[in-house]
Design goal:
The protein is an alpha/beta fold and 214 residues long. It has six helices and seven strands; from the N terminus they run ααβαβαββαβαββ. The chain has one domain: Vaccinia Virus protein VP39 (Rossmann fold, 3-Layer(aba) Sandwich), CATH 3.40.50. The radius of gyration is 16 Å and the shape is globular. The protein binds S-adenosylmethionine (SAM).
Length: 214
């Protein structure tokens, strides 16, 4: 594991932190997508951590949702499992697995909502490109990805000259995604994007390495 992700989650304890503010934005965007859903929703969260950006929103909307959270760290995955249970979310499956390989998504996709939060700041630009190009195979036409990217994160692996969220947006645009929302606060380094895949349907493929954390 590349960093102490337990310590990373502790910043959420401060409601004024950039991380907590980012959390609010992610939840707001997820809430908005779920409120527009006409029927059952399938959701996948890659590198889901303890699931706090997703699980409370699923519980509060009461929507008919099957969710798969994929998290490599066994303790964080167990925390997410426990939270889902406590919130009465029967349709949540937390997989202790590597979200960097498509193998871990078998049976969970196509997902109407793909969460990619806290991922792109920890992988190389090349891996971001591979992952973005693979996203259409993880969702149906009309599906959405909610993603985050920090600006000026510690030990940033990017070689991009500028705000790295613009690198991600550029890739999404080239692949054919439509931007639904993009939040870039003036006074904080986090960025949150929501992009819609208009289609066509792309076949899911097993055994593809999308990314590894640096
Ligand atoms: C920056 S945190 C983001 C957590 C959560 N998505 C959030 O935004 O609150 C990154 C998470 O990715 C997990 N992680 C790292 N490499 C992973 C991999 N290959 N597959 C799945 N999870 C991974 C870490 O354990 C950590 O919980």
């Amino acid at each position: 594991m590349s960093r102490d992700w337990h310590a990373w989650h502790e910043e959420y304890a401060d409601p004024a932190s950039s991380r907590s503010r980012r959390l609010d934005v992610v939840r707001t965007q997820l809430r908005a997508l779920l409120s527009e859903a006409a029927g059952p929703v399938r959701l996948v969260s890659m590198c889901s951590g303890d699931g706090r950006d997703t699980l409370p929103v699923l519980a509060e909307t009461g929507a008919d949702i099957d969710a798969v959270l994929i998290e490599l760290d066994a303790e964080l995955a167990e925390t997410a499992r426990r939270a889902a249970h406590e919130l009465g979310l029967d349709g949540v499956d937390v997989r202790t697995a590597d979200a960097g390989t498509t193998d871990s998504y078998r049976g969970a996709v196509p997902a109407d909502v793909v969460m990619a939060c806290g991922v792109f700041g920890n992988i190389t630009d090349d891996d971001i490109a591979v992952t973005v190009a693979r996203l259409p195979s993880l969702m149906p036409p009309g599906g959405h990805v909610i993603w985050t990217r920090g600006n000026r994160v510690p030990l940033d692996p990017t070689g991009f000259d500028g705000d790295p969220s613009d690198y991600v947006r550029g890739l999404l645009h080239v692949v054919g995604f439509e931007e639904v929302a993009f939040v870039r606060p003036d006074d904080a380094g986090f960025r949150v994007g929501v992009h819609r895949w208009p289609g066509p349907a792309a076949a899911f493929e097993d055994g593809v390495r999308m990314f590894s954390f640096v």
